Amino acid sequence: MTPVDTVKRVGRGTLKPGNWLQLLQFGVVGASGYFVNLGVFALLNGPLSIHYIASAILAFCVAVLNNFWWNRHWTFDARHGHAGFQAARFFTVSLVALVIQLIILKLLVSGGTGEFRAQAISVAIAMPVNFVGNKLWTFDGERDSSPPVSSQQSSSP
């Protein structure tokens, strides 16, 4: 799919009410992940005195696990797909968002914003990348995310 096709698909998708419901559900899951992320970050960076970048990465990992489970089972109801393939795609999309988030985090902290506030802002800014990537690639309902299975498989052991 070309970038132009993707933009057209996103545009067509805005006309479907079900996509707006999914966006709302994704937002609820994202909010839970956001608070998981900030809670883990506060614990690691505060009482445990772990550097803010390492804290952000560890907080990201915990939040990704939370968000994957809820998005797979509730937002996109994608239990029909192969969990391993979906998890790999979800993690890939999340890594792209993490890179964006870490760049923004570093810029904000370097500019004088407090570490916790910068974390909160940078996570919120990176969120749209997650929704579009997961909607169109990870949990795409228009295609099966598992590898093709041949109909010519033998039933013998």
Write the layout of secondary structure elements.
Layout: H1 3-13, H2 17-45, H3 52-75, H4 83-110, H5 115-138
Helix pairs in contact: 2-3, 2-5, 3-4, 4-5
Describe this structure in words.
With 157 residues, this protein is mainly alpha-helical. The protein has one domain. 74% of the residues lie in helices and 0% in strands. It is globular, with a radius of gyration of 18 Å. It starts with a helix and ends in a 19-residue tail after the last helix. Residues 143-157 have low confidence and may be disordered.
Provide a quick synopsis of the model.
With 157 residues, the chain is an all-alpha fold. It has helices at 3-13, 17-45, 52-75, 83-110, 115-138.
Are there runs of 5+ residues with pLDDT below 50, and where? 143-157
- By helix and strand content, what is the structural category? mainly alpha
Tally the structural domains: 1
The beta-strand count equals 0
- Topology as H/E string? HHHHH
Please state the average pLDDT score: 84
Distance between the termini: 39 Å
Radius of gyration: 18 Å
Q: Give the count of helical stretches.
A: 5
Shape: globular
Give the DSSP E fraction (strand runs of 2 or more residues). Answer: under 5%
Classify the helix fraction into a percent range.
over 70%
- Major sheet: none
